[in-house]
Amino acid sequence: MDRQIHRAGTPGRRHFAILFVTLMLFWLMLNSRLDADVFIVGAAVSLIIALLYRSGLSFFTEFRFTPAAFAAGFRYYGYFFRELFKSNLKLAAIVLSPSLPVNPGIVKVRTRLQSRMGRLMLANSITL
């Protein structure tokens, strides 16, 4: 099946194009200039990175822009920012009052998430 996808060419090219454009936009935002030298260096570096990682970041294409996905993202970020705020308050209490009990450790969590994008979002949410 993988050979059929690359024979058609569109998914591989699409991944490459999305990655290249994302990297280029990020480069331009970091530099905040549109001079020719900045643009050429950014395009060259973005091209090299996009060529090296064009299939490695394909999980971003699992996301579909639908009304249901937008609503789910809105709910997720509302819940996420509320929990982030609460955890920051708890962390501030621990820092300001070191006598509070802290029990650091590694916790194994089972998840029903199947998509690579879902697992990526979960991992990034946990680290914050």
Taken in chain order, the helices and strands follow as HHHHH
The total count of helices amounts to 5
Mean pLDDT: 82
Q: How much β-strand is present in the residues? A: under 5%
> In which range does the helix fraction lie?
55-70%
For the termini, the CA-CA separation is: 37 Å
> Helices and strands: which structural class?
mainly alpha
Q: Quick one: biggest sheet?
A: none
* Poorly predicted regions: 1-8
**Total separate domains:** 2
Number of strands: 0
Q: Rg to the nearest angstrom?
A: 20 Å
Based on Cα principal axes, name the global outline.
extended
3D structure, described in words:
- There is one protein chain.
- The N terminus is likely disordered.
- The protein is built from five helices and no strands.
- The chain has two domains: 61 residues, no CATH class; 61 residues, no CATH class.
- The chain has 128 residues and is mostly helical.
